[in-house]
Structure formats: C-alpha cells, structure tokens
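Lab channel / #folding
Pinned by the channel admin:
"Please post every new chain as: sequence first, then the structure tokens as a reply. Keep commentary short and put observations after the output so the thread stays searchable."

First post following the new format, from NK:
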Amino acid sequence: MSDDDRSREIDWDAAYVLGETPWDKGAPAPPLIEFLEGRPLAGRVLVPGCGTGHDARAIAETGAEVVGVDISGRAIDGARALGEGEGLRFEVGDFLDLEGRHRGAFDWVFEHTCISGLHPSMRGAYADSVVAALKPGGRYLAIFFLTPWDEGEVPEPPPYGIAEAEIDAMFDGRLQTEQEWWPGRHFPGREGRELMRVMGRSPS
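Reply from TO:
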C-alpha cells in the first residue's frame, strides 16, 4: 500500500476514540492567540480540520462568525461538547470536497495542522478548496508546521512536513502573500518550526 493510500484510509474517528491525537493540545495554537491580540478576524471564517475546535473557539471569541469542519464525526462531537453558540458552528465534512454553500462564502480560511495531516498528493485539492472557499478579496491565515520531526527521525506519517517552496507552488497565481513571519509563541517543541502567512485572493 502506498503512502497516499495509507493517508486516505486513516481512521480519524478511531484516533479520537483511542485518544491518539497528539495534534490536539487542549488549547488554541499560541501563534494564533498572538496574532489575534493584534488583529482580530472579522466576517466569516472557515477552519478546516478543526478537530475539537480550540482554534475555532478562540477566533469566534474575537467576534467573527466561525464554521469549523472536520472529516471525523468524533472530533466534531468533541467540539460541540465543548460548546457551540451564536457565531460558532461545527460540521462534519470533507474539506477536499467542499460543499457548494461554502464556496465563495468566507472572508478568511484559517489553517493549523490540517495540511500536515494530508498526504502531499492531496495538497493540490487542499489549495483548490482554500481558494474556492474564499470570497473575492478574502484572506488565508496559516500556521504551517514546516518540520514536525527532529532530524534523523523517520516516523510513519502523518504529520507531513512542508517546504516554503511547496507552499508557494500550491497557491501560485491564485493567492498573494501579504505577510510572512516566524511567530514568537509556540507549543513546546515547535520553536522555529512554524511559519505564519497571510495570503489574499484578488478582489476581482
């Protein structure tokens, strides 16, 4: 079985049942909190691969209308148990097969650990969905986990690392980089491994 087949056949529900969810730290991503302190998001925000919703909840607390989507029903059950409400909704869905009502519907798409769970062969479909979800003039805020593993480690993925050149290629000609920086706050062990970007879709 190829890496691609293994990635597509991952039982994400089982991971949540067994508690094998190292990506879920029980709190929103520190780089996101750092960003929101200086620039709260406004409008409608889509959070793909939202898991149990910590990042989506933090964004909603700044006043945005947030939709969190995850392919795992167990993850969404956990997100809903932690709280939905006005301006915050969680849905089971496949971001790579974006529903029609979500196309062109969002001012922002927020990325954190979704792409690192996808086999690299899926990145084109992921980028297509990001662009499709954004309104003209919408923006993509991403925390890219560039190097999930220490040098010399060869664990069975996911997560998958990603290079800056790959990010550029994914969105070439479709989204323009407006800001790029190394965040100052991190979960332990991620120092120097995460890159943040704001990328924008053309208004026309």
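NK: The longest strand covers residues 134-145.
TO: also worth noting, The chain has seven helices and seven strands.
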